[in-house]
Design goal:
mainly beta
């Protein structure tokens, strides 16, 4: 496998560390904003995370104080998406997963042993099942495994039916142990591409692998054993290509149509996901140094994008309801957050929009949680069911 020096990959490491796209900025997003949701109203609820789970609060700034920590070590929403059957999945670092069905109160799946000393990320879907990855930041986490890490879970399935997590691929299945760690990945719906970071004394190096499951991911046994995956060597260039932001002009037509009211000279990065899909793709418009971050989800019946300041664009219809605004885009702004608080990953389940929020200080996170918005109250006031 190809090994690269730390210095040749420092820019890539920073990109992965910062989630690969743009940055959070307190800027006014241009465009046709039709209304703003007030901070105190009955169409939404605020929740914050604590060591025991999540609790409701009046406003984010009223949530219980927490110590500010590096984002890899903090309780925060690290990913979210809507499944192909309309459920909302919210992955919470060091805590578990929230699964929203048709209302604004989720089922809470947690496993302290699995989540306590690992950073969770990369929520993906395969054949209708939800998965995520686990890793450790070697700078903040020095834990060692008795088996050298061979049995440590890497890819984990979320089972909403049994309310449990099921490891499906371990580090040993990928021939990774000891001082090595998977520092980033990309799943295209068929193959997994991963960067493997190795630290030995004062030297850091990277190698790149591609792996494919033998059969359905959900049917792989949890134990480390030969034959579960097909493992091949990859390259730095292949990994960079998969994870480097793409020029916005190449973004899907539905995404460009959703954001068509934005000025062409406005700089932004949008992390675009498909409901029930594989890894997201980041599209960049304008200057990367000036870009503000947004997230978008494209589903069969709707598309939605949310910027860090809460500016939201929606097109289509909620499941089982009529198309809004005669098929034209709707633009609105979520409740205004305090300074240094930002919106992030989101999903839609039934009538509810679920959006993460967090207090940020460069690479550290303080208070965090999620907002649920009753879109039926906002857009379907005539509905009585």
């Amino acid at each position: 496998m190809k090994v690269s020096s730390f210095f040749s990959l420092i820019s890539l490491s920073i990109a992965v560390f910062a989630t690969g796209c743009g940055k959070n900025k307190a800027v006014e997003i241009p465009g046709e904003i039709e209304f703003e949701i007030q901070s105190m109203s009955d169409d939404h609820k605020w929740f914050y995370f604590s060591a025991s789970g999540f609790n409701e609060t009046t406003l984010p700034q009223d949530a219980a104080l927490v110590s500010i920590q590096p984002w890899t070590e903090s309780l925060r929403v690290c990913d979210a998406n809507t499944s192909s059957d309309g459920k909302g999945y919210v992955l919470v670092n060091h805590l578990g997963a929230l699964v929203f069905d048709s209302d604004d109160f989720p089922s809470f799946i947690k496993d302290y042993q699995l989540f306590s000393d690992s950073t969770s990320s990369n929520l993906i879907f395969s054949n209708g099942d939800a998965f995520f990855t686990l890793s450790r930041n070697s700078f903040f986490n020095k834990n060692k495994d008795v088996d050298g890490g061979l049995g440590r879970p890497y890819l984990v399935r979320i089972s909403n039916e049994s309310h449990m997590f099921y490891p499906v691929v371990n580090y040993g299945d990928l021939d990774i142990s000891g001082e090595s760690e998977i520092s980033g990945m990309f799943y295209d719906g068929d193959s997994f591409l991963a960067s493997v970071k190795t630290e030995k004394k004062d030297k850091i190096s990277f190698e790149y692998i591609q792996w494919n499951p033998v059969g359905k991911l959900s049917e792989l046994p949890p134990q480390t054993k030969p034959g579960k995956v097909i493992l091949t060597e990859s390259s730095e260039s292949a990994y960079r290509k998969a994870n480097t932001p793409i020029e916005y002009t190449f973004a899907p037509d539905r995404l460009q149509s959703l954001l068509r009211s934005l000025p062409r000279n406005f700089s932004f990065a949008v992390v675009c996901k498909y409901a029930g899909g594989a890894s997201p793709v980041c599209y960049m418009n304008g200057s990367p140094s000036e870009a503000t971050t947004s997230y978008a989800v494209i589903a069969d019946g709707w598309s939605c994008a949310i910027f860090a300041d809460g500016t939201t664009y929606f097109n289509g219809a909620l499941d089982g309801r009529h198309i809004l605004n005669n098929g034209k885009n709707i633009a609105f702004r979520l409740p205004k957050l305090p300074e240094n608080y930002f919106y992030g990953n989101f999903c839609i389940a039934g009538d509810f929009l679920i959006v993460s929020w967090e207090e940020k200080d460069f690479f550290k996170t303080g208070r965090s949680g999620f907002l649920t918005v009753d879109m039926k109250k906002l857009f379907y006031p005539e509905s009585r069911d």
